[in-house]
Each structure stands twice: as C-alpha cells, then as structure tokens.
Design brief:
The complex is a heterodimer of chains A (411) and B (264).
Chain A lengths: L70 H20 L7 H9 L12 H36 L11 H14 L7 H22 L12 H26 L4 H8 L8 H20 L1 H6 L4 H6 L4 H23 L5 H13 L3 H25 L8 H26 L1
Helix pairs in contact in A: 1-3, 1-13, 2-3, 3-8, 3-11, 3-12, 3-13, 4-5, 4-6, 4-7, 4-11, 5-6, 5-11, 8-11, 12-13, 12-14, 13-14
Chain B lengths: L1 E10 L2 E11 L4 E5 L6 H8 L6 E6 L2 E2 L5 H7 E4 L11 H7 L13 H13 L15 H14 L4 E5 L7 H18 L2 E5 L3 H7 L2 E6 L2 E6 L1 H4 L2 H8 L3 E5 L5 E5 L2 H4 L6
Parallel strand pairs in B: 3-8, 3-9, 6-7, 7-8
Antiparallel strand pairs in B: 1-2, 1-4, 4-5, 9-10, 11-12
Classes of the chains: A mainly alpha (411), B alpha/beta (264).
C-alpha cells in the first residue's frame, strides 16, 4: 500500500484550522480512493503556473496526506510465512502423516490430553522439526531485515548483511573451532565473536578515514567504510582459507558450515539468538522513518536535522549483532539479504516503513521454504541451504526484476 | 537574521572563502553572484553548516556552531544545487521529509505534519502529483517539489543554490516569482546563489558579488550590476542594458564584437 491522498469533504468537519493544528477528524488512511478521486475543492488553484496562483489556500481544504503503511504486503508475507511454517513442520524424512503431525502439535496443548501420539513421533515434531522451522524463520528474518537496513544506511543496492566482513569473521571463528577439534558447542560463540569483531574493525578503520565531528556526509565516509569492509573480509577470508588448507581433513565440516545449515537446530539455539533477533529487529523497525530520510543522501539528511553518524552507527550495530547471531547458528546463508528486500521494494514499495517489516516476515517465509527444499530434494541427504537460496532465489529475483521493468515501460 | 563574521573555508590547500563578513536582514533576499568557483555554493553550505569553516555564522541571533542538527534545521532550510531525488519515492513522502526537524528521533509524522505538507503541496500546484513517483516528474515540477520540502521545515531562513538552473526561461521566472511570493507571505530571509545575473538583479534586494572567495562588491542591484564592476570578474564582453521597465539585463558579447563599442 502506497501513500495516497484520500478524499476529504471539501467543507470538512468544523471550522478551518491552522496548519499546525492537524484535523483530528477523518482517519487519513481509511478510504482507498486514488489521487484523481479526491474532491476538486482539494486543490483550489490550477496546478501551473504556480506564480499566478491566488491567495494562500485554506489548509483545511487540503487533503491530509496518507500514511505509509505496510498493511497489504505485510499480510501477504504473513500468509506466506504461515504456509511455510505448516509445510516446514509437515515435511521431513520421517514420513509422518499430516494428521499425526497435527496431533503431535496439539497434544502439547493443555486442553487436548485425549490424543495419543507415539513419543518418538512427538519428539520428531517437537525436538527436530519445530525448532528447525523456528530457527529458519528467525535467521531468514534477520538476514533479510539486516540486508534491508544495510542497503538503507549505505545507500547501496548491493549491500548485504555481510558487507562489513561479518561472513568472513564468522567463517574464521567457526574454522578456528573446527580445525582445533574444540567442542562443537563453542562454534556459535566463536562465529559470533568473529563476525562482530570483523564488523567492528571495519567500522572503526573505515569511519576513521573521514574523521570530523559536525559535518557528516562530506567526504565519502560511507564509501570508505564499505571499502574497509572489502579489505577486512579479504584478509580474514585469506587467513580462514589458509587454516582450512592446513587441516584438509576437516574440509567437509568447514564447507558445510560455510554453505549454511540448519540441520543441528535445537531449542537452545533459539533461546540463544532470540534476544538478539528481537532487539535488532525492533531497533531497525524503530529507525524505519530515519532510513527513509537517508534516501535523499547523507548531506541532505543532515541538513534536515539528522545526526547521520549516530544514525549510521546505531543501525549498523543493530543489524550486525542480529546478523552475527543468525550466522552463528546457521552458517553463511547467502543471497537472502539481497533478494528479499529488493523483491519487496519492487513489488510493494521502496519506503523503509514497508521494506523493513515486510522483508523480515518475507525473509522468514523464504528461508523456511528453502530449508524444506534443502532437506527434501535429495532426501535423506541434505543440500546446503545456501545452495538452495541461490538456485531458487536467483531466477525468482530475475523474474521480479524483469516484470518490474515491463511495468515501468508500460506506465 | 543571517550574520557571517570572517567566515573562512579551505578545501585542502585551496581557499574557498577568504573571510566573508556579511549580514542579511529579516525578510531580505540576498543574491550571491560571481563567476564559477567564486565560492557561492560554499557560502551557502557554510550557513547550512554543511562545510567546516572558521569564523562565526549566526542565524536568528544564535551561533550555528552551538546548535544541534535538529535546531539548525528548524532555522535554516537548504536546497542544494543538485538535490538527490530518489526516483521511486512519492511526491507526498518527499515533502514529508521536510518535517524531520519537527519529529522526535524515533517518531513518525503526526496528522499535523501531514496537514502542513498537504497544504504546501496544494499551494505549489502539486496536488495532482501527490502520489506520483519522483522519477516521473518534469524539471519544473521537481523544482517546486524541492521548494515544498524546504518550506515544510518552516524555517525562517531559506538557502537556495541555483534554484533555476535546470529550468527554461519562463519556468525560471515562475520559480523565482514563487520564491518571492512565499518569502513575502512567510517573511523568509532568502540567501540564493544565482548564475543568471539578470534574474539575480530582478529578484534580490541586494547582491553580493564574490570572486575567488572574497566579496568583490555588494549592494543594491543597481550598484553591483554595472559594466565596470562586472567586466572585472566576468570578462570584458559584459554589457548591461537597461530595459524600459528599469530592469537591468546583463548580456555577454562575443569576443570579436565586444571590443567595439556597442550601438547604444
């Protein structure tokens, strides 16, 4: 749903009001009337030329501009997520019937004790499938939301949540644990630490390159952060690959982590990353209007009263912590952070008030479905989920890109 | 309303502004003219605190160096020479950005903000375009659009960098008439960099002629738009004609003809 100018009675309720006292009356989003449908009195002067326009118009005779609300696309994404969750819980190598899965789910509810589900089936549903589906949803939401936020704050359509070296740092942390035969329980914290450390080094080095307190946006400080990310990622990836070559017996294990996997998902993973995802997603959504202001560039955003350096740091911090938490339990699942936000932009609208929430819900749905494919196309073997996201996502994305162009050409 | 005291700006080793001291009174339109590279844009950016500068800039009696970005944005609305216009943003969303200095950090626009912007969109003749994306607008429409966003800030000082450079002759006059009308209605102080000397003289109360970062002349248009003054900075071919209405038209003769005295 895009912003719109809903119709408003020409002689609205009550007396004319000064512009600063907004009319409390009609809900500005209620009617879905197109722009052309608003009453003629709403524009009491001819559109052009403006120089010859008459006296200042009475503000009460103007339509109140519509709010940007993600309502419809968000509902579509939520429906997709619901379907994905149902499919995700129903499908798996154990070949449980849908009704058995349903009973296993219901049997946990307190008012439904009459069902008798074999304990092994209940365990498959509750200890394997449900946590895996929930973890997939959390990771997908975080990668897509993080990608959208990075694209906004760096104003770069190619930005993804791994832009500042999160993937390389996480990969190095995971590799260090695997090659040293340390406890597998240490892998997520090591990957998290590596990811956060890499992003922190990138940010400090990159933003130091254009130091200066008061006038942000003059030098290309954003560009220097992105370039520092390229350098840090190259360095850490090189170290990681060196370690990997030195311990070639662990190659399959490292490789499967790097390509992403949810097969070891457990409730404890969910408990660990849930706080990061909730706080990160909440912070990003809270900054949705400010990311819209940044769309006019850092210099203009600062002239509109935004402290750009502080905004950038807050958003990057939130997106990075959430992404690092997701990476720590799922490995490096690529592509979600780019294609999901851009698909939302091209189909639902480019405002971050739409892009952020819809990307999060849509990314959750996308990753849950990708994981279903990952564990079924070669069952009982699993395909790395990163391979699925690229194989399924790239053609879909190209399709959206093409249909968008066609739509624009026609209009 | 605007006060500059020994304002200096350097870009590396290049001096862009070499100590400017100037005032603009409330409601005054001060036109900044000068050849390319004279420092016109830098002067506006110094007032908007978009460049680091030495010396003091005051707006409404307050030194800008002590103001938060938000407070400064409530006093000064700045329209850069080439505003960044996201092609997929709608007209109404773009104008609403102007309310940013009045909206709390993590808040969204209120009905009052939307009402103010709707009024401006109507006043600037953009009502029928409110839901259109910026990528579909013409140059003249975009010009009015960026003005609408700047006015939505409700700042007493309006800085315009080449507000008409992308427009045809008729549209230039339209745009400047609009600025003039809004200035009178809202008693705005306008500081604008203008390339076109004729238009600068027609609209500004006072002109500030910059060259190489320094004030070369300042005063009413009649005092600044003189051949002897302008030729020193714009070349020997400059000729100033006075129209029947008393306006001064500044033209530049071709080099081979400029040497000979004109027919009038």
């Amino acid at each position: 749903m895009r912003s719109k100018v809903p119709g408003r009675p020409a002689d609205g309720p009550g007396p004319a009001q000064p512009p600063s006292a907004g009319p409390p009356g009609p809900d500005p989003v209620a009617p879905l009337s197109p722009v052309a449908g608003h009453p003629p009195a709403a524009s009491p002067e001819p559109p052009a030329p403006p120089a010859t326009s008459p006296d200042p118009p009475d503000p009460a005779h103007h339509p109140v501009l519509g709010r940007i609300r993600p309502g419809r696309p968000l509902a579509v994404a939520a429906a997709a997520l619901l379907i994905a969750l149902i499919v995700g819980v129903s499908v798996g190598p154990a070949d449980l019937s849908p009704s058995l899965v349903g009973q296993a789910l219901l049997a946990r509810l307190p008012w439904h004790p009459a069902l008798s589900v074999p304990p092994i089936d209940s365990a498959i549903v509750w200890q394997i499938r449900v946590p895996r589906v929930i973890l997939g949803a959390l990771v997908g939401a975080m990668l897509a939301g993080g990608g959208a936020a990075y694209q906004g704050v760096f104003r770069n359509p190619l930005a993804d949540p791994y832009l500042l070296g999160v993937a390389a740092g996480g990969g190095l942390g995971a590799t260090l644990i695997i090659v040293n035969n340390a406890s597998i329980g240490l892998l997520p914290p090591a990957a998290f630490a590596g990811a956060v450390a890499a992003a922190a080094i990138t940010y400090v080095l990159g933003s130091g390159a254009g130091r200066g307190g008061e006038s942000p946006g003059i030098g290309g400080r954003t560009a220097s952060i992105v370039l520092a990310g390229v350098a840090v990622a190259a360095l850490l990836t090189a170290i990681q690959e060196y370690l990997q070559q030195q311990h070639s017996q662990t190659l399959p294990e490292i490789y499967s982590w790097i390509l992403g996997e949810l097969s070891l998902a457990s409730w404890s993973d969910i408990v660990v990353i849930l706080p990061y995802v909730v706080v990160s997603a909440g912070l990003l959504i809270a900054h949705r209007r400010l990311l819209d202001v940044l769309r006019v560039g850092e210099a203009e955003a600062s002239s509109l009263g935004i402290n750009v350096a502080r905004l950038r740091l807050t958003v990057v911090l939130a997106a990075t912590l959430g992404t690092a938490a997701a990476v720590s339990v799922s490995g490096l699942i690529g592509f979600v952070g780019i294609i999901v936000p851009h698909t939302v932009r091209m189909t639902a609208g480019a405002s971050y008030r739409i892009v952020l929430p819809v990307s999060m819900v849509g990314g959750a749905a996308f990753l849950v479905l990708a994981d279903v494919a990952a564990r079924t196309v070669q069952a009982p073997a699993e395909v790395p989920i990163g391979v699925i996201t690229a194989i399924a996502g790239a053609p879909f994305f190209l399709f959206v890109l093409r249909s968008r162009r066609t739509r624009r050409d026609l209009s | 309303m605007i006060g500059l005291d020994q304002v200096r700006v350097r870009y590396g080793g290049t001096v862009a502004l070499a100590g400017i001291t100037e005032r603009a009174a409330p409601g005054e339109w001060l036109g900044v003219i000068g050849p390319n590279g004279a420092g016109k844009t830098t002067l506006l950016q110094a007032v908007a605190r978009q460049v680091r500068h030495d010396g003091a800039v005051e707006v409404c009696g307050q030194p800008t160096s002590g103001l938060s970005p938000r407070k400064l944005a409530r006093l000064v609305a700045y329209v850069p020479q080439r505003p960044l216009l996201p092609p997929d943003m709608t007209v109404s969303d773009y104008v609403l950005l102007g309310r940013t200095p009045h909206i709390g950090y993590l808040r969204v626009e209120t009905d009052a903000d939307r009402s103010i912007c709707a009024g401006l969109i109507g006043q600037l003749g953009l009502s029928d375009l409110a839901a259109r994306e910026l990528g579909t607008l013409s140059g003249g429409e975009l010009q009015r659009l960026v003005l609408a966003r700047a006015l939505a800030q409700q700042a007493p000082v309006l800085l315009l960098d080449e507000p008409t450079s992308a427009l045809d002759l008729g549209r230039r006059v339209d745009a400047l008439e609009l600025v003039d009308k809004l200035r009178r209605e809202r008693s705005l102080t306008v500081l604008s960099a203008v390339h076109d000397l004729t238009l600068a003289g027609q609209y500004a109360d006072r002109l500030l002629l910059l060259d190489r970062g320094a004030v070369a002349a300042s005063g009413p248009p009649a005092d600044v738009l003189r051949e002897d003054v302008l030729r020193r900075h714009f070349g020997p071919g400059v000729q100033v004609l006075t129209t029947a209405s008393g306006d001064r038209a500044v033209i530049s003769l071709r080099p081979d003809r400029g040497a000979r005295p004109g027919p009038g």
